[in-house]
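A reminder before we start the practical. When you read a complex entry, don't treat the lines as separate problems. The point of joint prediction is that each chain is placed relative to the others, so the output describes one connected object in space. Small molecules and nucleic acid strands, if listed, are placed in the same frame. In the example below there are four entries. Take a minute to note the order of the lines before looking further.
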Amino acid sequence: MSKTTVTIWNEFIHEQKDEKVKKVYPDGIHRKIAQMLGDKYNYQFATQDMPEHGLTQDVLAKTDVLIWWAHVGHAKVEDAIVDRVQQRVLEGMGLILLHSAHYSKIFKRLMGTGCGLRWREANEKERLWTVEPFHPIAKGIPQYFELPNEEMYGERFDIPDPDKVVFISWFEGGEVFRSGVTYTRGMGKVFYFRPGHETHPTFHNPTVIKVIENAIDWAKYEGATDVMKAAPNIKVPLETIRSVEPK
Amino acid sequence: MSKTTVTIWNEFIHEQKDEKVKKVYPDGIHRKIAQMLGDKYNYQFATQDMPEHGLTQDVLAKTDVLIWWAHVGHAKVEDAIVDRVQQRVLEGMGLILLHSAHYSKIFKRLMGTGCGLRWREANEKERLWTVEPFHPIAKGIPQYFELPNEEMYGERFDIPDPDKVVFISWFEGGEVFRSGVTYTRGMGKVFYFRPGHETHPTFHNPTVIKVIENAIDWAKYEGATDVMKAAPNIKVPLETIRSVEPK
Amino acid sequence: MSKTTVTIWNEFIHEQKDEKVKKVYPDGIHRKIAQMLGDKYNYQFATQDMPEHGLTQDVLAKTDVLIWWAHVGHAKVEDAIVDRVQQRVLEGMGLILLHSAHYSKIFKRLMGTGCGLRWREANEKERLWTVEPFHPIAKGIPQYFELPNEEMYGERFDIPDPDKVVFISWFEGGEVFRSGVTYTRGMGKVFYFRPGHETHPTFHNPTVIKVIENAIDWAKYEGATDVMKAAPNIKVPLETIRSVEPK
Amino acid sequence: MSKTTVTIWNEFIHEQKDEKVKKVYPDGIHRKIAQMLGDKYNYQFATQDMPEHGLTQDVLAKTDVLIWWAHVGHAKVEDAIVDRVQQRVLEGMGLILLHSAHYSKIFKRLMGTGCGLRWREANEKERLWTVEPFHPIAKGIPQYFELPNEEMYGERFDIPDPDKVVFISWFEGGEVFRSGVTYTRGMGKVFYFRPGHETHPTFHNPTVIKVIENAIDWAKYEGATDVMKAAPNIKVPLETIRSVEPK
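Here is the predicted structure of the whole assembly.
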């Protein structure tokens, strides 16, 4: 079986401008995630400053699962590329959105909602509770795990009801948050995972990486034998139609 | 208690161009629906050829529930108006989408999916089964009801999992369809209801109208006491934060 | 419109045996809840030591919504009464389960799962976050509310996926919990609400009572016009059957 | 990797008493299903007339996925065995319920509802539409498949909202039915699949068998690393509790 191809998209702005972030992720969040995941997957990297944000038709066609980290650059992502990514999700490409990607154009597009939340940067403790311990994304994950310092995201998180809420976070400052949520959109699987603020070494944490690995394996498209095209006109009915329209 | 204000949006194209449709809906689908619903509600009408498609900020601000019928004009609906309608749904305006509105920009926007389906124009019989007889939208609706001639829509219907599937249709030609589905998007309730092809007198049918009436009463925003603004920065934590970030 | 009839079932054991609890609820939890709810509803009271636990056919027939508080007496509730309550829920009676009723026979019966959870009695602070501020059960409830001292219940809560998660709790000791969850079972609506430990004056709290009031109004059966009997044999088909079974 | 162990439980009554059924399933429905599935799995067989209905602790302990076919014998299945099967589902054993098992004690136990439906024995045509073509249970299954003669089951099917509706049936006589529905109960996955009336050769049909094979592979427990025991008392909190109870 050939390796899953994972494309890691990172806006890659903080790491080039902010000394504190550069220290945590000298090669960028995208390369750190790949290094932590190891050689189980094939990788493609794409960043916002590349032509077509690095997400050409060719790159996306080869992608089994796309990981998306973004924050300050959301507004500058071109709508045409968002259209393209959405189309690929509907065709079966997996999509994993990390942390501040909750406010990305592609997540809002797939959710149809505002995707707002409460937030605070106070380096506080986060404890993620595994609410669905039997879900493939929770495989090997303990009942709970902790991140000593993270940005806080709190409810009300303005999303549609998830298919499954896999993790709920407790924050030291007093909030809670649905931190791992799954969706199906067309043929594609979507997972939003909360942690990963750029100033903290969250993607150095093996449990966080294990969740991402599980999510990749879960989101990978298995194929469907016989998918109908978008809106087929079925002129010949399967059964004889006897109804007669009144004159 | 003041009356609910219902805005009925109709692209109003077929009724002005097609003799057959004009005969069924001489004053337009929008006016027929209002006439059938009667004086229980206040009405506003809006059509595609009006400035801003008739959906000015003022009209939408006064709208409790928006009904949307559209078919051949989807592509010509301005994105700025779609943005505006979506924003009002997220703020609590109810939205009822009828028949070919499944392929409207606003429905696709709120779903995040392609919204495709199988279809056939063969004037065949449709029987709608009430799968959730206790849902407010099914109040007063029998176990099933029939439409002698309708366009066929068949599964796979490319939508996210609904909150509730209220009706499932049987078609004489051999297909089935999730014909009444509910969603929550932000503070707004959304109902998609399948029947209503322009060449058939479907909106003359009292049971169809009763479903729409129920849906209006269900979708009307009841208000929420204390809704947070989009993405508040909560600088002062609720609890004392003792975590210290390592140097 | 006649008043909704609310039957409050309380095992009524702690209040008669434990001095601390007696001080908080001298007349029993059931009477305190009714007193706080006020004269909006008709009340019936039922306790475990009454014949048929106070839940005769007649009492249940008159009940629109049943509230259930129980803790140490679960095992001694008769199965025949549990059958009877379940049957009434399936026929449309609303059911609100409070606090340790998560482990009652009737809740397990309706859920089909073990309904276990983590717990701790440490008089710690609980903060309930309103995750669905637009749900009827959240009407008038702020973004969050606090109980200064409560028993802790923590995830993994072994329940089926709820229809809606209305509240999620944060606990001072480090846990989270889905504290307000809704279900539909047959024609009946079910709401589980977490707070209410017998040693704390939780049911003296107006916000807690407002949630219960909202839940009563939400759970009250509105009726369904045309509900089929349990398993009707439809001998005469709706459509002509032309299939022939091969010999 | 060792083979999955599938236990096929069949009440095995019709096949021993009814000549017509004996002709279709001379060795019983259970053996026919195993023969069709082939040597991919290890099999255990259990029938109602065996001691403990063949479902001893030992047999269940070895079972990865249990298949259940039953019809006229539901009432005679011992409650203690139903308890035992439920317990194993909650611990992770997969459960696939076929056809008239919708009215079995174990299905009602796991659902909490009445599980009624409309029905008719008229040898009519059934067409199953694949509503979730990307679900693992639909792998290799076409957009629709047909059974030339089946018993009819029609909506309203009195079940809780499924996790996923994978198939919806169209019946020649005019009804529709949610024919393939998934649930999670505790650590266990549950799939109800409608077809399989004893007088028809439905389990001779390779597509029906492919659905069952997919369901076995989907329902097999993958394990969870760190599952809490039923209701642990967590005496030592994770965080320091500072709240003080008022005197």
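Discuss with your neighbour: Chain A touches chain B through 54 residues (CB under 8 Å). What might explain this?
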